[in-house]
Amino acid sequence: MRRRTFLAVAGAVTAAVAAPVHASATSYPFRNHRLPVRVRVEDLLARLTLPEKVSLLHQYQPAIPRLGMALFKTGTEALHGIAWSTDITSTPDPGAVRTAVATVFPQAVGLATTWDAALIRRVGSVVGDEIRGYHSDNPVVWGLNAWAPVVNLLRDPRWGRNEEGYSEDPYLTGVISTAYAGGMAGDDPRHLKTAPTLKHYLANNNEIRRDRTSSNLRPRVKHEYDEAAFKPAIAADAATGVMAAYNLANGRPMTVSPDFDDVVRTWTDQVLMNVTDAGNPNNLIGSQAYFATLAEADAATLKAGLDSFTVDNTNATPTVDAVNTALAQGLLAESDVDTAVRRILTIRFRLGEFDPGGGPYGGITMDVVNSPAHRQLARETAGKAVVLLKNDGALPLRPAGTVAVVGPLADTLYTDWYSGKLPYEVTPRAGIAARVTVTGSEAVDRIALRTTDGRYVTAGSGDGGAELVTSGLSAGTERQFDVFDWGQGVVTLRSVANGKYVERADFGQTSAFVNRAPQPRDWFVQQQFTFEDAGDGAVVVKYVGYETVNDWEGPNNYLTVAADGRVLLGSPDAAGATPFIKETVSSGIDDAVASVAGADAAVVVVGSMPFINGREDHDRTTMALAEGQSALIRAVHAANPNTVVVVENSYPTTLTWEQDNIPAILWTTHAGQETGHAIADVLVGDVNPAGRLTQTWYRSDADLPDILEYDIIKARRTYQYFDGDPLYPFGHGLSYSTFRYGRLAIESPLKVSVPVTNTSDRAGDEVVQLYTHQRESRDPRPNLTLRAFQRVHLRPGQTKTVRFSVPVQDLAHWDVTRGRWVVEGGTYDVLVGASSADIRQRGTVRVKGETIPARDLSRTTRAVDFDDYTGVSLVDTSKERGDSVGGPGWVSFHDSELRRARTFTARVAGAGAIEIRLGGPTGKRVGTATSPGTADKYTYTSVSTALTGADGRHDVFLVITGDLRVDTFSLR
């Protein structure tokens, strides 16, 4: 009933979108585009009824015909081109995803590898134009509020969504996100081309239990690292708001974090519209169990500074009912609703909705989508994003001769969950074949599966495929499948009969299988299998597709053959599965070896499948290449030592053997429609590579701590703190040119110049990177910190002086002893080079600044402002605000002046004890404070104890036992 009702409402809303403005509304002040936006917003707000205002809080803001207001929806995805949106008009499934056919640029991490802010601003501008184009065609589906870019830091390369972010470094992330969002927003001082929303605030860098895990953020990490990535685009007025992340931070769901008002809105004078992530308000009463009722949850969400609810797909009724209940119960005032609606309306006005012709960007039409200029920019960007990891002289390829192109990604371009549909495809083989003579194959095994009684698994030959059955006694093409290896035993099966992938036909417990998928795809990736040894030369086939967001398995996971010959999901275990004989029709490695043996060079194209090798809701467990792909590389290299490996994936990969043995290695992300041209341009030398890595590439999975470890300082994560020997350092990337760095000149404040000369006979780009290191500090400081960079083009023999100016305030770090930013006086190393490990020139500068004094613990001190810790967790002081330390474990406060302290007092919740010790967690105990318990974890009480021998200057340790939360304390 509700579904039918909503469809009727949707139809009415759609009609209202195109309805003319009522004559009575045309003269209202909010229609006067010459008035300031603030005045227009207040006029419109005053004309809305309370029910109308409440209706605007949901993602699908309904039309209000009496005021000439059209439907407005948030959430067009646009990470590297306009991707998809939801269709309110779709029948019978309102809210179905509509994917745009538009210009597809390299994945976001690839955009950042260009280290070219001006280029990325151009990309963002094109994306904004194409969103406008689609909006002109169907404003109900294609909204102008864009959910991009993602600025979560790539602190862990196993994150399933690594492809969506830019870098492990907050400065680089800030520069690229500001450029991309700024291009999307446009250059008009009063109007927006689109309204970019930064994702996902804050500390969202794991998919495992992503709506239940809490990211422990000590203040220094929060301020110096995670917040620092979000601030630049907001401060530059390039982005118009942020999206709240799914995770909790310090025990509080980000959906109700006070940061949205207390932190994010302090970065700008512009009005921001902040949004929830999809379904997150319901998580507050569901998986997070943070509130008892949706009214409480929605009230807290609004009060925290989120303005738009992305929840329940297109059905706004639960949100409207919950907000109305919160108003009736006094949890919200109408002024709270007004505050959120005021922000929403401000963005709508800036988008030109109430201006004649839709404002300065209202005339953009579908003609811009995938225009020749946009296609050319896609090719340029994909070429500039390529990173040359290694080159022992194998590249560029010689123009004459034959190149054997082999590998599972040679003939395919893959898209990802946040990609638009490719308007055309230039594969690596096609791109290379347009430049040189090419041979080779995909180098994948072609197999047939035969039952023990001799019948073969058979697929349909039509475009839509057919249910797999067992029939026939010979392995014809309709009974052959190409096996693509994605690592850890997971494979996909492409039917030779029609070139489509085998997938589960439906979600039934005894589903059939059909060869109909153009590629592994969709939220539930139903095209994944493993082969398990069943003995006597037979295998059983296990279906391992993503079942639900929690990867629920069962009851049936293994393939069986029914009496009628249909291949079904029919057994919960291998014992009940049908055994198959896996016949190899042709060996991928044998084919590759044969094709490369006589070639002048071999190019092996390997990499990932973005829907399988980690993605939203699924982290990676390894950075390694698929085992079959590694074996292919080794076999090809043995057959032809002049081998080039092209790795096409979205994350750092442990290419240790390849680095030691392969002459040349290129890396690119899944780079969109022009991937093949870009790869070929670099391989033949028409484009001189200058892409640089934006993450540390580690040698082994063992170099990484647990994926839920967010403390980059203590865990020594990212290039800033990592003390090991990386495979490829942050900022690494080679060129066909060589560059000489001249003498470094440093002025105070931090103005740096360095001459850079192209010492080769080939024009090229050098990415000149400026790092600093603080020699003396009270606190642990990074080994290096990126402060500035420039991508500089130099002709052969040309010299350019590269100039940087770094404000001294940028050298500040968060002083936990006083809760503020501080620039410490002292000597700072200034390092300029081609990567974080390839420093060409060094200098030093004396900086005038502060000396952090000894801690004064006689003042009320937050327990979370510790210097070091073990075992403790960081938790929410209350549901509204504040961070506390939860035991058991210890926290320390270094260099504290005790001044003959006599009493320790702490504000605590729960039951347990605090031992006050000096010098270490097992050092001299000077007192113990005990809490017998409080009513609950949010009920705090004061505990105290007398101190003995607490005098002088010491490192003070609080050793917490029991289930005790410590908010604040003092020693007086």
TrEMBL record:
<dbReference type="Pfam" id="PF01915">
    <property type="entry name" value="Glyco_hydro_3_C"/>
</dbReference>
<dbReference type="GO" id="GO:0045493">
    <property type="term" value="P:xylan catabolic process"/>
</dbReference>
<feature type="domain" description="CBM6">
    <location>
        <begin position="845"/>
        <end position="972"/>
    </location>
</feature>
<dbReference type="InterPro" id="IPR001764">
    <property type="entry name" value="Glyco_hydro_3_N"/>
</dbReference>
<dbReference type="Pfam" id="PF00933">
    <property type="entry name" value="Glyco_hydro_3"/>
</dbReference>
<comment type="function">
    <text>Catalyzes the hydrolysis of a non-reducing terminal alpha-L-arabinopyranosidic linkage in ginsenoside Rb2 (alpha-L-arabinopyranosyl-(1-&gt;6)-alpha-D-glucopyranosyl) to release alpha-D-glucopyranosyl (Rd). It is not able to hydrolyze alpha-L-arabinofuranosyl-(1-&gt;6)-alpha-D-glucopyranosyl (Rc).</text>
</comment>
<dbReference type="Pfam" id="PF14310">
    <property type="entry name" value="Fn3-like"/>
</dbReference>
<dbReference type="InterPro" id="IPR002772">
    <property type="entry name" value="Glyco_hydro_3_C"/>
</dbReference>
<comment type="similarity">
    <text>Belongs to the glycosyl hydrolase 3 family.</text>
</comment>
<keyword id="KW-0378">Hydrolase</keyword>
<dbReference type="InterPro" id="IPR005084">
    <property type="entry name" value="CBM6"/>
</dbReference>
<dbReference type="GO" id="GO:0031222">
    <property type="term" value="P:arabinan catabolic process"/>
</dbReference>
<dbReference type="GO" id="GO:0009044">
    <property type="term" value="F:xylan 1,4-beta-xylosidase activity"/>
</dbReference>
<dbReference type="InterPro" id="IPR013783">
    <property type="entry name" value="Ig-like_fold"/>
</dbReference>
<dbReference type="InterPro" id="IPR036962">
    <property type="entry name" value="Glyco_hydro_3_N_sf"/>
</dbReference>
<protein>
    <recommendedName>
        <fullName>Exo-alpha-(1-&gt;6)-L-arabinopyranosidase</fullName>
    </recommendedName>
</protein>
<dbReference type="InterPro" id="IPR008999">
    <property type="entry name" value="Actin-crosslinking"/>
</dbReference>
<dbReference type="InterPro" id="IPR036881">
    <property type="entry name" value="Glyco_hydro_3_C_sf"/>
</dbReference>
<keyword id="KW-0326">Glycosidase</keyword>
<dbReference type="InterPro" id="IPR044993">
    <property type="entry name" value="BXL"/>
</dbReference>
<dbReference type="Pfam" id="PF03422">
    <property type="entry name" value="CBM_6"/>
</dbReference>
<dbReference type="InterPro" id="IPR006584">
    <property type="entry name" value="Cellulose-bd_IV"/>
</dbReference>
<dbReference type="GO" id="GO:0030246">
    <property type="term" value="F:carbohydrate binding"/>
</dbReference>
<feature type="signal peptide">
    <location>
        <begin position="1"/>
        <end position="23"/>
    </location>
</feature>
<dbReference type="InterPro" id="IPR026891">
    <property type="entry name" value="Fn3-like"/>
</dbReference>
<dbReference type="InterPro" id="IPR006311">
    <property type="entry name" value="TAT_signal"/>
</dbReference>
<dbReference type="InterPro" id="IPR017853">
    <property type="entry name" value="GH"/>
</dbReference>
<dbReference type="GO" id="GO:0046556">
    <property type="term" value="F:alpha-L-arabinofuranosidase activity"/>
</dbReference>
<keyword id="KW-0732">Signal</keyword>
<dbReference type="GO" id="GO:0008422">
    <property type="term" value="F:beta-glucosidase activity"/>
</dbReference>
<dbReference type="InterPro" id="IPR008979">
    <property type="entry name" value="Galactose-bd-like_sf"/>
</dbReference>
